[in-house]
């Protein structure tokens, strides 16, 4: 039995989707996540531990690489795919929950999403393939 690996993505998206990406302090994770969970339409999110340098070139960072003595800031990258109409409210919520007033508070930016498919739905066999696996 061969499996068709072509994803079933609706060519005409029903909604204009955006990828909202925020870099936040790790110690503020709970505050930001709690604020997101209080939204009426909880968007779901992905968190990734990251390190890097902002305009301050890592001053006050917590990670030192041994070979070149580079200083990095540790942050969490929060990624949310949401409707275009929700980006301003969600980014404002993240900015308020992640604010300390000090250098290195992080950033929030929005990029367009070209296509979107849930693996559970896009990978499901078609009726001609015989239903459930």
From TrEMBL:
SUPFAM superfamilies linked to this entry: GlnB-like
Q: Which GO terms describe its cellular component?
A: cytosol
Instruction: Kindly indicate whether the keyword Phosphoprotein belongs to this entry.
Output: yes
Q: Which SMART domains match?
A: P-II
- Please verify whether the record's keywords include Phosphoprotein: yes
Q: Which InterPro entries match?
A: N-reg_PII, N-reg_PII-like_a/b, N-reg_PII/ATP_PRibTrfase_C
Name the source's superkingdom. Bacteria
Which positions are tagged coiled coil? none
- Which processes are annotated in GO (biological process)? regulation of nitrogen utilization
Q: Locate the O-UMP-tyrosine modifications and list their residues.
A: 68
Q: Which UniProt keywords apply?
A: Phosphoprotein
Q: Name one GO molecular function term.
A: ATP binding
Could you tell me which Pfam families the record lists for this protein? P-II
What function is annotated for this protein?
In nitrogen-limiting conditions, when the ratio of Gln to 2-ketoglutarate decreases, P-II is uridylylated to P-II-UMP. P-II-UMP allows the deadenylation of glutamine synthetase (GS), thus activating the enzyme. Conversely, in nitrogen excess P-II is deuridylated and promotes the adenylation of GS. P-II indirectly controls the transcription of the GS gene (glnA). P-II prevents NR-II-catalyzed conversion of NR-I to NR-I-phosphate, the transcriptional activator of glnA. When P-II is uridylylated to P-II-UMP, these events are reversed.
Name of this chain's protein: Nitrogen regulatory protein P-II
């Amino acid at each position: 039995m061969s499996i068709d690996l072509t994803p079933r993505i609706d060519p005409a998206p029903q909604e204009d989707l955006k990828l909202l990406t925020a870099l936040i302090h790790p110690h503020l994770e709970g505050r930001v996540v709690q604020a997101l969970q209080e939204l009426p339409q909880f968007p779901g999110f992905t968190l990734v531990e990251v390190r890097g340098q902002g305009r301050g070139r890592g001053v006050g960072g917590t990670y030192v690489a041994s070979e070149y003595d580079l200083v990095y800031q540790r942050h969490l990258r929060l990624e949310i795919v949401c409707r275009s109409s929700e980006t301003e409210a969600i980014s404002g919520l993240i900015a308020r929950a992640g604010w300390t007033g000090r250098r290195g508070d992080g950033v929030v930016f929005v990029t367009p999403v070209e296509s979107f498919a849930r693996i559970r739905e896009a990978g499901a066999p078609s009726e001609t393939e015989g239903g459930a696996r």
